[in-house]
Amino acid sequence: MSLQRAAVAVVVLSFSLLAPASVTQVLASRRGPQEFGEVKPDKALVYFIRTSRFNGSARTQYLYADQTFLGVIRNASYSFAYVDPGEHLLWTNWTRVTKEVELVAGQTYYVDVWLTIAIVDEARGKALIEEVGDFVTPTEGDLKNAASQIENRYERARKKEARKEKAEVATAAPAVAPPEDTEGMLQVPANTPVTLELLENVCSSLTATGDNVWFKASEDATVEGGLFLKKDTLVKGIVREAVPAQGGGKEGALDIVVPAITAPDGSSLPTVGLILSSGEERGDASFASGAMFGLIGALAVQGREAFHFAGEKFKVFTRQVTWVRPGERAGETPPPAEAVTAADLILKGKVPDPVKFKPRKGKISETVEIDLDSGAEPRELVVFALGGSEIPEPIKPLEISPHGKSWRCTFKGWDLARYMRDEAGSTEVPVKMRGTLQDGKPFLAVASVNFSVDRE
């Protein structure tokens, strides 16, 4: 047994011996068999789940949406509530735990609650419910406590959320009157779902607040047989908040908003699109280190980063009724690449060192060096494609310098790695570049990057 596990075992045994028997009985009496809600067309169904942890296990969390009490969760338990659609501040009686959300009527949400508030997908949410097992119903005492906490702590929670460093994202949209002539147009109802595929890796310590995050429509989106969003149309999201993991086992957090999509006719369709995620909290490991090595040992335990991989899919929903004309033109498009014919110069590139990504720890190679086999200095160089697909925003090198008989192009590691995937058992990621030489002659350059992801 490791020293950390031994320390935890000793503390657990001591607590069980010293705690009054009535504590266990009182807590157990408030739990019950699993219960599930039914979807309602005018409400959002929200499951809130608290997984098992030793650290803080005796404390009860009360969850609120603004000044409405949703329920209680104790260690290894869950509950659910119906919430009005729209924007809300979710917060707990531990008022440092807050998160702004926007919910859609008729949808089901699974919320993982502890030191952060994260929305997980349906599969993960159901798995967590099976893991914790117990459904908790508030008691009369809980209802009285909740009323007191709303009165005395809501403003504190609201001010706590307001102090967070966030990017400004315009999510609200003015009501739009239908056009006088709707012949040949499609009516896209409010709350129409659209499935998006993430085009890049995101990580709470590497992706910054205010960064653009790119998605694409994973399939054609239609209403009444008419197309209002083509498959592969690019969609831009914005990182509203990125919080790196911290000492003391505190996990990282990501808050990504997709404010709108663009229809084939160029019309903007405002959307409710929110991705809230957090890393793996390591409070128990921090507690064990503290038991063994004191405060410094506890603070030295780093939480895990929040992250998502390119290729993951998410749903957004149209915010309001919108009229659009179906067409063939895509919405967001990357900057046009310069035409390069077969007769143009093609240079070969070499990448001497592999790129290794550790998402849980938020670690990536600091730089990526690509050596171009060219006697003349390359200029205006950008990477415009990775993994066989063009990227939405071409990447410029940090510097270009002579290196033997070639030219070394140094890029920021994360700038490239965010678009890389280690799919189908292959770690070789093709890279395409373009630019001009000293004499103004355009060129293409190709290289291959050895990319691997440590998923542990």
Write a short abstract of this structure.
With 456 residues, the chain is an alpha+beta fold.
Defining key terms:
disordered N terminus; 3 domains; alpha+beta; eight-stranded antiparallel beta sheet; globular; Immunoglobulin-like; 6 helices; Lipocalin; 456 residues
Summarize the structure in words.
- The structure is a single chain.
- The protein is α+β, with helices and mostly antiparallel strands.
- The protein folds into 3 domains: 3-164, no CATH class; 187-333, Lipocalin, CATH 2.40.128; 345-453, Sandwich (Immunoglobulin-like).
- Helix content is 18%, strand content 40%.
- It is built from 6 helices and 34 strands.
- Strands 25, 26, 27, 28, 29, 30, 31, 32, 33 and 34 form a 10-stranded mixed sheet that branches. Strands 19-20-23-12-14-17-18-21 form an 8-stranded antiparallel sheet, with no helix packed on it.
- α1 packs across α5 (283-300).
- Mean pLDDT is 83; it is low at 1-29, 281-301 and 329-343.
Total beta strands: 34
Radius of gyration: 26 Å
| Quaternary organisation | single chain
What share of the residues does DSSP label as strand, in percent? 35-45%
Global shape: globular
| Helix/strand class | alpha+beta
Number of distinct helices = 6
Helix content estimate? 10-25%
Largest sheet: 10 strands, mixed
Please give the domain count: 3
Uncertain runs are 1-29, 281-301, 329-343
C-alpha end-to-end distance: 21 Å
**Overall mean confidence score, pLDDT:** 83
